[in-house]
Design a protein that fits this description.
By secondary structure, the chain is mostly beta strands. The protein is built from 1 helix and 9 strands.
């Protein structure tokens, strides 16, 4: 687990390195954590149980994009990949955590 400071709020984040980045928050009920840090600039949402706020970060962990994401369902409108070409990381957060503009994210490893 990692600790992340976002707009002055401390969050408990699942560290998803390597193959864990492919899984991310799939099958996860998010008890005991506020989200996950994915190493990569794109995600998709099969088997994810919650709507998410996605914060895309560059190599210096500066915010380069923010998107809202919904889980993949039988509705083809939900069949999409969320991506940001300038991102090296994606911070997947419980919906509603991102309420205002974010300039930088501090990750404590």
């Amino acid at each position: 687990m990692l600790t992340v400071r976002l707009n002055g709020k401390m969050l408990c984040i699942k560290d998803c390195r390597g193959l864990a980045s492919v899984r991310g928050l799939m099958f996860d009920d998010m008890r005991g954590c506020d989200g996950a840090l994915i190493y990569g600039g794109s995600i998709w949402m099969p088997f994810v149980k919650h709507n998410l706020d996605l914060v895309f970060l560059d190599a210096q962990r500066r915010v380069v994009g923010v998107q809202k994401a919904v889980p993949l369902t039988m509705n083809p409108a939900t069949w999409r990949i969320y991506r940001c070409s300038a991102a090296k990381y994606c911070l997947e957060l419980k919906e509603g955590i991102v309420k205002r503009k974010i300039a930088k994210v501090k990750v404590y490893e």
